[in-house]
Design goal:
By secondary structure, the chain is α/β, with parallel strands linked by helices. It contains 16 helices and 12 strands. Helix 13 packs antiparallel against helix 14.
């Protein structure tokens, strides 16, 4: 649920709900642009590391829109408005045309829209169909462009003022944004001590404003899908208040946020691949999420290191573990490790789209049974739902359910919770 805020009576939203709001405004902005109506643009406010820019990147990817990331804080007014160039007509009369910035998408000649081919690394063969109103395949062309004015409150007031017309009208002098281009903005709040400037009222009134706040459940679901290190998932489930430790009243250099937990996860995976000195590694994590949180995480790591190996569990070896009351974090860690290892084995027997051999499928069926049996016998229900939903829905692993001994027991207790409402 959205929570009320005293700042201009704007409602606070989690990152996921903010993305829903952005999608609504995106559709309205597109529709208005097709009839040369006023543009519509959201402004997302939030503390550092809260996923403001990330939700806009995700939306652009979902809509097959090219993301044009513009850091207004690094610009002068002329970088946005363009530079005047003097020309002479046939009668030798001087006139001025503006050399516009290259990053702004341009309309095709005689059209309201822009054709936006993808670079070689941007091509996505999984996309089907054509860009609306064209014969261009979506796999090789963007449907449109999403211009993100990031760090907007950090931009000099003169730069913010230069954006007035573009935000509301989609225009800069003679320039007109294509109908298949939308604009969004994001930045830190004035209370975040991020060297921001107050947004002028005329510009503020051109946006729809949202204040983004942390949401543990959303982060937890995303973390499973994104492959965040299972130890971090487990630690945060046991210490939910450690997800976000930003405090603008303190002179912090390193502090825990959605973003820095993702960074710490990357470092932990690399430490497993190629270990470095433990003191150096701890300093790296401390410099990412803060020393206090790192100390608690290190204690949790020492507990997790004594847990059974996911490989042993899937191989059917006899291991010692039973979730006890208060062991939520440890249980999340082992369930996540299991799911990651099972997905790795699934990918291995389906590499390059090949069909598993009979022996490979038989072995994987046994591993699936061991996976389900361990969860059902030793882990609590909420964690079973989260883990198996990640396996079956997020990673789309196809279990041969008629060949699994444990499926009937799992299905009776959890199948509806896992497979419905997705």
């Amino acid at each position: 649920m959205a929570k009320g805020t005293t700042d201009s009576q704007v409602l606070e939203l989690s990152p996921g709900r903010a993305k829903e709001a952005a999608k609504l405004i995106f559709k309205v902005a597109q529709r208005n642009a097709l009839v040369d109506g006023d543009r519509r643009a959201p402004m997302f406010w939030g503390q550092p590391g809260i996923s403001k820019s990330a939700i806009i990147r995700q939306l652009a990817k979902e809509m097959n829109y090219k993301l044009i990331d513009v850091r207004l804080s690094q610009m002068a007014p002329e970088d946005l408005r363009g530079i005047p160039a003097v020309f002479k007509d046939a009668s030798e009369r001087a006139y001025v045309e503006w050399a516009l910035p290259q990053f702004l998408p341009k309309r095709d000649i005689g059209s309201r829209t822009a054709t936006l081919p993808k670079d070689a690394l941007e091509i996505d063969e999984t996309l089907t169909g054509m860009v609306p109103g064209t014969e261009h395949p979506r796999s090789h062309y963007w449907d449109g462009a999403l211009v993100l004015f990031d760090e907007m409150p950090n931009a000099d007031p003169s730069v913010q003022a230069a954006s007035y017309q573009l935000v509301l009208d989609g225009k800069l002098g003679d320039y007109v944004m294509p109908a298949n281009a939308v604009l969004m903005a994001a930045g830190n709040r004035e209370t975040d001590k991020g060297n921001t400037f107050p947004m002028p009222s005329p510009l503020s009134n051109r946006f729809t404003h949202f204040f983004i706040v942390p949401d543990f459940d959303e982060f937890n679901e995303w973390a499973f899908k994104a492959g965040i290190h299972p130890t971090i998932i487990g630690f945060l489930n046991a210490n939910k208040n450690k997800l976000n430790m930003f405090d603008p009243s303190k002179p912090q250099k390193a502090f825990a946020t959605n973003r820095t937990w993702h960074m710490a996860s990357d470092y932990m995976w690399e430490q497993e691949r190629a270990p470095i000195d433990r003191t150096v590694f701890r300093a790296t994590i401390s410099g990412t999420i803060g020393s206090g949180v790192e100390t608690e995480l290190d204690g949790f790591i020492k507990v997790v290191d004594k847990l059974p190996k996911a490989e042993d569990i899937l191989d059917g070896k006899d291991v010692k573990f039973k979730q006890e009351e208060g062991d939520v974090g440890v249980a999340f860690a082992i369930a996540t490790s299991l799911t990651i290892e099972l997905h790795h084995r699934y990918q291995k027997i389906h590499a390059n789209g090949k069909k598993p051999t009979a022996s490979e499928q038989k072995k994987f069926n046994s591993e699936c049974d061991n996976y389900l049996k361990f969860l059902l016998d030793r882990i609590d229900g909420e964690i079973i739902v989260m883990a198996t939903k990640t396996a079956l829905v997020t990673h789309n692993m196809a279990f041969k359910i008629t060949e699994l001994t444990e499926w009937k027991r799992f299905s009776k207790q959890y199948a509806k919770a896992v497979l419905l409402n997705n």
